[in-house]
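User: Show me sequence and structure for the first protein, then do the same for the second.

Assistant: Starting with the first protein.
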Amino acid sequence: MRVLFTTFAAPSHFYAQVTVASALRTAGHEVIVASQPELADTITAAGLTAVPVGPVLDLEPETQQATSSFAGDRNLGGLAMSNSRHDPYPWERALGMFSAMTAFVFQNVCSEQMIDDLVEVARDWRPDLVIWDPLTLAGPVAARVTGAAHARLLFGPDQMARNRTAFRALLDERPAELRDDPLTEWLGWTLARHGERLRERDEELVLGQWTIDPTPPSMRAPVGLPYVNVRYVPYNGRSALPGWLRETPPYPRRVCLTLGISLGEVEDGGTVAAGDLMAAVDGLDVEVVAALAPELRNRLGTLPGNVRAVDFVPLDALLPSCAGIIHHGGSGTFMTALARGVPQLIVPDLMWDSKEKTLALTAAGAGLVIEDQEKLSPDHLRERIITLLDDPAYAAGAARLRAEMVATPAPNDIVPVLERLTALNRA
């Protein structure tokens, strides 16, 4: 069969698709990956065929606009769907969430030209199956227009399903004349441009006909959707194993430190300052492998003697040698640490679903979280790092989650399942 993968031009979102795409390709199926032009080299470096669609993606202006528009609530800044409360959001907050996501995320990562180009590719190539990133709703649109089966492939916990299910329940309680759904309205306009119409309660355009989910089943929210379990197999892009990683570490234990692009931007990014982290690990009897951008490293000056600063190191190769990892809650980092059975200390950046990751992780006893960043200090960080490393319960919890993931079908194992579901769902 022919399988079209699509994601917006974020390498980490494409990385989440690589192993399933490769499994389908090595099983003999035709596979192409469609995204904005700047992702083409990243796609071909993974051994897959790239199809550029739409203009070059530039999210910076939209991200700034979203953040300023929701300055009083960063968690609604257009890039977050955090809902860690036990009770549902009130209607106004839920509506605000999907208004922000529709205006600042869905419409921006999938411009009209990107969607039009993807529909044209699908009409020409006639895929049997479209597999799409959860933020790239051009995928289900192209599938609907061409009659292909389609499925989401998650990059982490299914926060979209959790929030969308809650939103629909609130929407159904509203009087008919007050049922405002910005996401459905946008999808309706988009389909209409291609000669299609929304169906009643057309949630498969948001949640897929089914969902391929690499998160451990024990960490999922009960939303009642059809899932295909798949083992998370880390892919970090083109990389080389550094020589120092083959040597015996100079300290009894090793810790990985990576807080993404927001490391050190505490005023604007909402994460812990890099200087505080350096002070927290200074003098600990551990080697700290810290991923630091060159400009940040220069600003920090002299680093503690136990810190090894690197521009990049493949996490899947580094983490087996680590007793713990400190990070910001990014999905690739979070999932790779789960797959390698490494206890985690998360300093959540409050974007997208990082808060929910911390709740699931702590509930599983596999890590800790810095909950109140406004009162954060190097001493508090240091205490949490020592607790993570010295209490064997966290290593045991991480090992349990790794065992659960290892017992999940590998990407190659789910190919027959995808073949069967495609035959059942394509028009």
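Switching to the second protein now.
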Amino acid sequence: MAADLSQIVKAYDVRGVVPDQWDEELAELFGAAFVRVTNADAIVVGHDMRPSSPGLSGAFARGAAALGADVTLIGLCSTDQLYFASGHLGLPGAMFTASHNPAQYNGIKMCRAGAAPVGQDTGLSDIRELVERWSAEGAPEPAAAPGEVTEHDTLTEYAAHLLSLVDLSEMRPLKVVVDAGNGMGGHTVPTVFASLPLTLVPMYFELDGTFPNHEANPLDPANIVDLQARVRAEKADLGLAFDGDADRCFVVDERGEGISPSAITALVAARELAKHPGGTVIHNLITSWSVPEVVREEGGAPVRTRVGHSFIKEEMARTGAIFGGEHSAHYYFRDFWNADTGMLAALHVLAALGTQDGTLSQLVAKYDRYQGSGEINSTVDDQSARTAVVRKAFESRPGVTLDELDGLTVTAADWWFNLRPSNTEPLLRLNVEARDTDTMAAVRDEVLALLRSE
């Protein structure tokens, strides 16, 4: 019987429970399939701190080497460190991580040379077909000469590259609390921050893929409570929280208040436009109105896109954009092979704060102009039917426009909302923004009532 990969091969990556849904035997086939689909004669492989990651990544390397590809193992790394290695070495890459998922999960994020994404339409479906076939018929014939497997730690080179992209020379001393969530930030932050004038207060830097302190997903407010309290207790200038594979970064100001990723997107966009005047900036359709406003004010060209890193990266490449940001705290940089790196966004925040005398809350106030609901999930029996109910309620209202670039977006003069279906669960995701809190709450409550009515 061929392995059923329908539950673990997602739109952008592989992810599932180990060993129930996949194991080292399948990982070896994934390595062979990755080499076959990318036609690579050499690849780079890294992994996070999960208990299953060394074994799975090693099996993947064996499968790739069996088909003749040389494999560079970079060992423990963040996802953006793997992207750096792919770009710096000019090799296709594979990162073993399940990001913020619980300990029993693991996955693979794959890219072509130069960190170009591998998703369903760019090779992932072909990889899946080969793995399913080989799991039923047996592994492919090995190459006449197997590839060589070598080790190369890229952490120092990764840190040097990031630091070369941001001018930190005039930065004043700052006190920063960093919550690594027992994830890969505990591995990368000490090296990246080592040369900066920072008093670093580390939280949960011990690499532990069982996540003993809290889930490594800083977008969930429950997971930054410890960081917020520590920032206030330490009277720190700011706090940073990284997710499990440390490709996303969430920022907390000196009061312990979370700063929206949209405000960080606007701040970094302004800084990147100062370096690249007139550049294009990508933002997904549920970032704040403030993002395209700031981009235009700074002389740039905003481009709106669907949610999801493959769409952002495609638009980055198509438009030659200098920067892109998402509501989920993913930040993409042309100077980083169009890949996402929360660490580089964090360096921009440190540079922006460290070269002026005010507080972080004062700095970001001009980038945080509206009231947002955050993402609210509703379990529904029929995503399409419930969306149609909402559409009908709003489509004939005067002064309201609708579009369906990604789900349903309804826009009025003083507010907008987006309603998107989850691809993996029976959920509809709602985001609302308005010019004031009362309007945001009224629109939010009206839409939720329509979604949740019997």
